[in-house]
Target: Xanthine dehydrogenase small subunit
Amino acid sequence: MIQFLLNQELRSEHALDPNLTVLNYLREHVGKSGTKEGCASGDCGACTVVVGELQTDDDGREHIRYRSLNSCLTFVSSLHGKQLISVEDLKHQGELHSVQKAMVECHGSQCGFCTPGFVMSLFALQKNSDAPDQAKAHEALAGNLCRCTGYRPILAAAEQSCCGKQPDQFDAREADTIARLKAIAPTDIGELNSGDKRCLVPLTVADLADLYDAYPQARLLAGGTDLALEVTQFHRTLPVMIYVGNVAEMKRIETFEDRIEIGAATALSDCYEALNAEYPDFGELLHRFASLQIRNQGTLGGNIGNASPIGDSPPLLIALGAQVVLCKGETRRTLNLEDYFIDYKVTARQESEFIEKIIVPRASAEQLFRAYKVSKRLDDDISAVCAAFNLRVENGVISDARMAFGGMAAIPKRAANCEAALIGAPFNNAVVERACAALAEDFTPLSDFRASKDYRLLSAQNLLRKYFIELQTPHIETRVTAYV
Model:
């Protein structure tokens, strides 16, 4: 059984189909049809809901953290122990919520289909910021698409509703909601079981290891932003899933003198602060990683584990010399991330083995790290090419080089010939041109609907040139730039 709050209503579910998304649960099982399906792939934001989760600050203060999610990519099992809020829950005692009023008064809605999603994104923005600036508003709304308004009135609604906000019914009953969430906090393995399909929800790494050993055919579910597409887009059935999002040990970020250890189930939006503090380019790239709804849900371990050749984080992590800790039963092994990827969607992971955490070396003054993403749109788009460069230059000579690319091969991969052309050479234009030529020996990219092979190779070479120019003239630096 799993338990969660549907606004303030306690829901206990056991026999539901584990392949059921939160979107369809709301619309088909509880009659809340305000949440819309636009794309069923997490691109349009019409299905946005907000999930509240109990959090304890470093000072011991308990509060509820509200986050926007794409309900079309969220399986119901991930709600275990949390609070689900949909657009119907905002109106209180006959009065519209302040974000709804702002959308009305600023004329932020025309056909209205996308409006519930925008309202929920604004609600999450209001809850998480006292006075958001324009950049925060753009970030919060970048995952919501509208074909009617041109966005200006919606941004005006964001400013009106979030600047000088007043307490609402959720603030008034926060203490009661906290108490109710504590009362339903999971204490044992949860489960949804429809007879022929099941999803198990462990709470510890040990429980996860035991379950995965017992069900090696199970699909591991973290954020689900990729896995859910098998259900919503390809109409496949997932007979057994194991949801790892309630394993607290795998959601920790610990900083040591020489490294950062990030639990594999840590949401990308939670990774931002630690990674941005060490590597600003990593932080910039995370801002452009899909939408906020996806970053609130997708995990760093999932982005590695699905072994996509165009995943954004692996090239950066490889260039930084990151490692993964793999767990199977009581056995753990540490593997350099570059050795984790073997071929397209093929990894070094053994049966019943899972990524427990990612180890990222801390930055040093000698490192010259930059990252770049080439995509057709600035926000919410997949890379055509993602490049990460990490050099050490001593007395004008390159002493070490780690260059990694996504979108250039069947796996995220280092450019060995390019690195060899750089190491031991002076960091000058002639050497960079030699290294650019070597990239043609490292990669034979494919052509697809995102980019041709020639475009990809030329882009990779130009990014290396860009890296060199920016290091020579930092005042013209434009990191993680999009190219149209």
Remarks:
- The chain has a mean pLDDT of 95.
- The chain has 18 helices and 20 strands.
